[in-house]
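As noted in the main text, all predictions were made from sequence alone. Below is one such record, for Carboxymethylenebutenolidase homolog.
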Amino acid sequence: MANELRPCPCDIGDRFDYGGRGQEVQVEHIKAYICKPPASTDKAVIVIHDIFGWQLPNTRYMVDMLTANGYIAICPDFFVGQEAWKPSNDWASFEDWRKTRDAGKTDKEIDVTLKYLREQCGAKKIGVIGFCWGGAAVQHLMLKNPHLKAGVSLYGVIRFFEDRSSLLHPTFFIFAEKDEHVPLEQVTLLKQKLKENCKVDYEVKIYPGQTHGFVHRKREDINPQDKPYIEEGRKDMISWLNKYL
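Prediction:
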């Protein structure tokens, strides 16, 4: 069966039954999900979704978690109306699908989101986090966008941008020890290149026993053996943002 060819295991994990506390808004040419804390703040985080798109309940859960920690958080539709991947799709067609959704071509959407956050939300210090496909997009943005203050890349697909490591901003990389999609050899190479070329603060952390997507694709209550690492990953993500925003 063609579905046995699975180039991305993002469908492994728990699909949250979660409605979200924020709202959907139109930001120029894209839709976005945004959540704001009750107290006013000038700190914001852009969340870049994985291949399952901006409406995935798991990702909205993470947006709301950021807001619970005091940030304006927004997840734009980086696929710009194109259909997100579905677990029921034929994985044999995945590479063709992915080629039409380049993690290195998110700049236009980031620019309009930055403008929206500054002009409509009063944000001055803005960071970015992303999962899987979105984690690769974070690495791309940390290499080139001068307006973002910090980034957290969660199990980002290193091979998309493995030849570049001169980060502009403090970046935290979260990886899973047993991630078949992002092998530890690639993580080791990334660490080596960052050590050689990176002039800003960075950290690369591997969480033992974990698989791809563990921070946002597993539930603590039904994955008790993974609960400490899920919570640690989320806490580390928030701590990095708190430090640099």
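Strands lie at 23-27, 30-35, 43-48, 72-76, 125-131, 151-154, 171-176, 202-207. Residues 23-244 form a domain with the Rossmann fold fold (CATH 3.40.50.1820). These features were considered when defining construct boundaries for the mutagenesis experiments described in Section 2.9.
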